[in-house]
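Entry:
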Amino acid sequence: MMTHKRNQELLDLFADATENLDSEAFTAQVLARTIRRKRTTIAAVAGLAVVMIALVWVFSTPLQEFSVLVAKGLASPLIELGDIRLSWLFAPVNNVASLLVLIVKLSRVAWKRMSGRQLSFY
């Protein structure tokens, strides 16, 4: 969108400029500044990557132990079934994770009904 009004401050700024810049020197200066900024950005990204890799390396073992603990806790059965066939048959629904999924689904259905929104299970 172009405007035909000219900003008087901007016009005064250009009118006060007494020095004409050499186009090749100006171009070289802009390119040097661009290259310097690009190198700074690359160095910052590389430094951030090194820090992130170090953090992942330091925290990988405790996080892995925590995730194994959570997985074992979620996979623990709700009811101990004596028969091995029954245990294998009900294994997908006889654990803490399936109970949590059921609670989340039921609370979502209840929230949708209380708020009057349509149900969508996506």
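The helical segments are 8-16, 23-75, 84-90, 96-115.
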